[in-house]
Amino acid sequence: MDILKAFDEYESTALLAIEAATSAEQLEQVRIEFLGQKKGKLRDLQSLIGKASKEEKPAVGKRFNEVRTSVADRLEAQAASVTCEAVDLEPSFDVTLPGTVPQLGTLHPVTKTIMRFRELMGRFGFEVVEGPELEDERHNFEALNIPNDHPARDPLDNFYIATAKSTSGGPVLLRSQTSTVQIRTMENQPPPIRIVSLGRVYRPDTIDRTHSCMFHQMEGLMVDRNVTMAQLKTLLTLFAHSFLGPDVKIRFRPSFFPFTEPSVEVDMKWGDSWMEIGGAGMVDPNVFRAVGYDPEEVTGFAFGLGIERFCMKHFEVDDIRRFYENDVRFLNQL
Question: Phi and psi at residue 201, in whole multiples of 5°?
Fold first, then answer.
């Protein structure tokens, strides 16, 4: 069959040309000549299939596919061989030297603590919400029942942003507590509410082993009918035991906060002394009125916990400054 003979001649000629090619440029010319789709010999070979009779076409088509595959595979193998020969296989370094183990990063201990806080409060049925770190005075003070003459509003006790203004034209400051998220949530959501907000807060405190001008808080809020102080104390005790272990001792001391009444300070036992870990209390009726809630219809509690304090206790770190000195040797131990 003349057609099959033409296929054989094409294959043998192509294979000889491939063997003779010793560079990538020569192989490319061979490819164009024998496998090119526009002017290559393969296109001429393909036109012969149409000249075969109906009985011959199965055999002719099969042989055409075999020839095309044979030439393409041999071309690919020759290209790989030429490439390997062109590469300098002499090592540019001493392969007998020991390798350098890459350093892998890890989560910061405060980040680990925040993730654990979110997990535990989720188990208690609290939803995590977010809020801005730049706040106006309404959300940071006024709606939280903090009057103009309160010491907490002293410009020296806050980080005001001199070049920024709020949407109402008032001053803007870095939030001094995550309680601002409570106000934003209640303004946009009717009760019942059960939320926590975790994030950075800023106060120009004197930096020492338990204080920093930037630290992290977890603020919690629960609003519903017949919410009690007993529920608040139970929640905080269960949370502390869940995070720090059943042996940790927690105490509640009477205190005062403008946005809660009654209010308590929460301490944990550390060695022979007590460390404050947060404040809490029943939401003041004035806070409910500021967001449009009827204090005769709902009650609620709120709490704010210092995340770094829990982190210090958990990892047995006695100085909060260790977390922000960026000493990798220290952080790798936690």
Answer: -135, 160
- DSSP letter for 187, please: H
- Per-residue pLDDT reduced to its tens digit, 44-83: 777 777 777 777 777 777 877 887 788 888 878 877 777 6
Rounded-to-integer distance, Cα 182 and Cα 164, Å: 23
Tokens of 13: 């000629």
Query: Taking a C-beta distance cutoff of 8 angstroms, is the pair 211, 145 a contact?
Result: no
* pTM of the predicted protein model: 0.67
- The DSSP secondary-structure symbol of 246 reads T
Other beta carbons within 10 Å of 193: 19
Residue 144 contacts by C-beta under 8 Å, 6 or more apart in sequence? Answer: 179, 180, 183, 258, 259, 287, 290
Helix (H, G, I), strand (E, B) or coil at 18: helix
> Cβ atoms within 10 A of the Cβ of 144, count?
25
- Please give the C-alpha separations between residue 39 and each of 32, 49, 64, 72, in angstroms, as whole numbers: 8, 17, 17, 16
